[in-house]
Sequence to fold (123 residues):
Amino acid sequence: MTLKLCQGPACHTYTTKDRLKGPAGSKTYQTRRRSSMYYGKGNFCSMNCYNDWAETFIDNAVDHFGRLTDPKHLTEENAWIKDYNWSNGYDNRTYVYRNGITNEQRPLTEEQFRDSNYTLNER
Ligand SMILES: [Zn+2]
Fold:
């Protein structure tokens, strides 16, 4: 089992008992090591560590991967949203594809609603 290190730059400064390691007399607080972590796609042991990383590195990361300089546009062709039609009440709801720009609705089967690959969007 491979242990991963938490990528939080200040993980070792949180003085919890589980981080205090080493032989008696030379114990240190250490970055957490886990087989799996739940935050930031498994890179961080806690939201604190995730936020510490973001505070420290997010500007560099955004610049590295490409900062947006113009707004993106969601056009009519890609504005289809899976939705319920509740007009006949919860028990008789029907599934619909609703266009978020034109408000046009098209019928959708429950199977199509649940199929994450089914889409009217062109992408
Ligand atoms: Zn951590």
